[in-house]
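Project standup — Tuesday

K.O.: blocked on the structure for the chain from last sprint. Re-posting the sequence here as requested.
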Amino acid sequence: MGDFVDYKTLAKNIVTTSMRIGLKENKKGIAKARRKYKRFVDWMLRRDEFTLDEAKKVRKDAEKILEELQDVDFGPLVLKKGRKYKVKKTVGHSVLIACNPANKELALEVERQCWRNGAHTIMLENTAKRVRDSYVLCPLESLTELSDVRRALATSTDYVIHIDSVESEFWKKGVPAIRFKLHAPVSQRVYQLRDRNKERWVYVGWPHPQIARELRIPPKRFKRIMFNAIKWSYDKRTIALIERYHKAFDGSDEIHIVCDKGTDFTFSTKGRRYLKDDGILSDEDIKNNDIGMNIPAGEVFVAPVENSAEGSLYIPETSLNGYGVVKGLMLHFSKGEVVDYKAKRNGKLLDRFFKENTGAIRRIAEFGIGCNRGAEYTNGYILIDEKILGTIHIAVGWNIGYGGKNQASAHHDFIKPIYKGKVYADGKLLIDKGKFVG
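H.V.: unblocked you, prediction finished:
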């Protein structure tokens, strides 16, 4: 892959530029210390360093307290350096890195960059076979359980960096549907725990040759498209276009999409904030509870009002992760939910997707606008396809992480080319034949 991208540069972009991983305030250690020694701790926190004699003027037993605050249970909050004590107000982020053997080299460079920034890591390696076996080999009763290990990761990890670890789009083929159905409430609870923990995440795409073959695209072309889209994620022109779309759409109340094959679709975004997937997790994003990101990046998106979607939406092709490709799909929405659908090919795969997941899996979750000039159609790799300039996407399922209210065990994006369509915001034409006209 080195002929397409420099791992060290990409790792630095992911860890430092995009996610800003490194140090965080030592909230737990400070809170614990304040409960015991509030006045003394407040005095310490107003200083970067001090001597023991200075500390004894505040508390006669300062030496004993300072020895206690050097314990790891406090962070530690204090480090002794020669005759002085240094106040350690920050600690490193906790980062989970998930990868595949094919992208282990990038994952290791990502890990090294985390270490350089002061963060702590744990790495998990996955394959399609390993994920599949976790469903096939487990007793049915075990699939209903949320393990202590998985709960602990969901409630204590600051960041998850997921470098596409499953090298097959169709790994669910042949696995009995009941196994996914039994496990769906566990997946939904993990979503809830991560949302409550405000865990920040990034999903990094990877051009696995097996996925390319499944999607009927030459592996070399898939690789070129992937890394070209990643490079354009950090291009100033992509960021400028995202700003233009965001300025035009943010604050609008109603969206109306008219396009080919009978597409006539409306929904409300009243009171919902439009967000920017511009490759950088900014302070504004975090404030707005937009704590996740994709790489390739490049879209403007929003969580629509959940009960507002009405009408019909034609999707030429959609790849359901783990299941396969559905072609010629017409979705019908009423009161925010998919109430009917027909497909020219493989409609049963969508049947399985809806039946094997839980929560608001049929309810509208997202409206997104692709802004990445480097993204090209891949026949179904959603992480790239949803960023293509001249497309929009409508998702169903989970959307808590960016301002919505849907609790669900999954999230799926339906990609819609609009080269023959129009998108209106509050009656004003903003996209015509795939181009911004606002």
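K.O.: great, moving the ticket to review. The chain has a mean pLDDT of 95. The first strand starts at residue 23 and ends at 25.
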